[in-house]
Amino acid sequence: MSGLATSLSRRLGVAHPIFGFAHSVDAVAAVSNAGGIGIYGATRDTPEEIHERLKRLRMLVGDRPFGVDLVLPNGMPPRDDREAIERKLPEAHRRFVAALYPQYQVPPATKAGMRSRFVHSVEMAEQQIAAVLESDVNLFAWGFGAPPAAVAEAKARGKLTVALIGSPRHAKGALDTGIDVLVAQGYDAGAHTGPIGTFSLVPQIVDIAGDVPVVAAGGVATGRHIAAALAMGAEGVWLGTAWLATREHALPPTVLKKLLAARSEDAVICRADSGKTLRQIRSAWSDEWSAPDAPKPLRMPYQDILVGDLLGAIDEHEIEPLVHVPAGQSIGYFDRLTTVVETMQKLVGETEAVLRRLAIGASSGD
């Protein structure tokens, strides 16, 4: 165990209380193999892909623990019926999206985009949950609400259950399900994020959680951030943006270049990808949708289907002005390509140095 071990890291049997979220199997495996807890983001995977990728992760990490995360918002349609969704798309929105193809010289995609190849529906969510429950994953995390029945079944199968929350109200709802761990995700965070800043949110969630451990997320990029999270009562930290700048994540060159050049203020919130707030690196995509004459993004999953094929074409053909990636305000700390091991060692070393300095200061009466 490292010098920053907590009761949560000891419970998980890992060296460092650092949760590493990524959509890359290799990056997730590298986090677990480096002594943290890798978390695979499977929201946009089919049940078959979830089964395959979790099996591959187990092969890569051996007996080390890892987790999986699903985002399951309320209000989704009951079935995976793309045609039914498309019939309800407003014509003005269709025209706006269609105009972006010639404006940015985007060739058609050769396949459905990541957000449009299936409908984010109750039917699909149930199948995804079943795939995770059938796996030997150690930790099951949920964003936008943890279904009580799924939480109970996961716990019965020996999986640690985790809920990502962005407000005290959400924390109380998650605790009522019997959740094992709360991730307090502040406004600084990448991708789906709420309105409350990390420093304001984490202490409130710690006070509400009682004996349930809290993990801090949003803007965590250095050992100083980790030490601050521990000082606020968190028993670990959750990072996603940090791993984007690693070789294991293997982002396309055009995306990586834009990411490494970004500053904290370039991480903007936009609803145009899915209909939900999504903090991402500023691009012509976010600029177009924030223009005064742009239509208001539709709610999920209608926005998914509206723009999914175009987003797939943008990524497939690397249309530089429009490419973007979800990332938090911590991106300002990551300006070069590194590895997961280097990043983990830097985080741990910095945190231990801060904690030693604080301990020395306290003992000397400073």
Structure description:
The protein is α/β, with parallel strands linked by helices. It has 15 helices and 10 strands. The protein has an 8-stranded parallel beta barrel, surrounded by 7 helices. The protein has a two-stranded antiparallel ribbon with strand order 9-10. Helix 9 links the parallel strand 6 (181-185) and strand 7. Helix 3 (47-61) runs parallel beside helix 6 (122-134). The longest helix has 24 residues, at 340-363. It is globular and about 65 Å long.
Class by SSE composition: alpha/beta
Number of helices: 15
Q: Enumerate the spans where pLDDT stays under 50 for 5 or more consecutive residues.
A: none
Number of strands: 10
Order of helices and strands: HEHEHEHHHEHEHEHEHEHHEEHHH
Using the alpha-carbon principal axes, give the shape: globular
Task: Give a short overview.
This protein is α/β, with parallel strands linked by helices and 366 residues long. Helices cover 44% and strands 13% of the residues.
Topology record:
Layout lengths: L6 H6 L5 E5 L2 H9 L3 E5 L5 H15 L4 E6 L10 H5 L4 H13 L18 H13 L4 E5 L4 H9 L3 E6 L2 H9 L4 E5 L12 H12 L4 E4 L5 H9 L4 E4 L1 H4 L8 H9 L5 E4 L7 E4 L2 H7 L11 H16 L22 H24 L3
Parallel strand pairs: 1-2, 1-8, 2-3, 3-4, 4-5, 5-6, 6-7, 7-8
Antiparallel strand pairs: 9-10
Helix pairs in contact: 2-3, 3-6, 8-9, 10-15
Q: Any key phrases for this structure?
A:
366 residues; alpha/beta; eight-stranded parallel barrel; two-stranded antiparallel ribbon; 15 helices; 10 strands; 44% helix
